[in-house]
Amino acid sequence: IQADHEEELNEKIEKVKRALENQVKTTIPLSFTTEEKARSNLWAIRKGLLTMAGASRVPGTSVITEDIAVTIDRLAIVGTDLQQMFQKFQYNDAVLFGHALDGNMHMVFSQPFTNNSEVDRYAVLLQELSDIVVGRRLGSLKDEHGTGR
Question: What is the Cα–Cα distance from 48 to 22, expressed in whole angstroms?
Answer without folding.
Answer: 27
